[in-house]
Design brief:
about 140 residues; mainly beta; Phosphorylase Kinase, domain 1; globular
Length: about 140
Amino acid sequence: MISEEPYTHLILTLRNTLGSGAYCSVKDAEGYYPGYEDTLPYAVKVYKKNQLKGFVNNTNPLFNVDGTVDSSSLGMVSMLDALKKETQIWGKLDHPNVVKVFMLYDTPDADNMYLLMQKADAGQLADVDPTTHKFTFN
């Protein structure tokens, strides 16, 4: 589960861009806690909220804890709400092959939203050939 508590005093320095897409970029980041000398590596997804204003037609229902369908997850859902819901689910995952999500930082009047996550140093999972659009897995 994503918890802001352990990260409220974390001081981050965003470095170079590791990658970018239509809605966000991923930055290399270094974080430390005041009073500690060690820095920790992170990756930070920087979402442009003005590009998440559209809607998506979600046909895949989400389920409540009791097994019933969450009716608010069906039909036209804002991209921003869908992203927040996906991030909540992603934050609950704990598996060595899944990048960990630590915190989603969002304020209503800010232009960007920041997703603090584990930095995976192994590089890209796959490359895409621009002419054939086929994946080559690394």
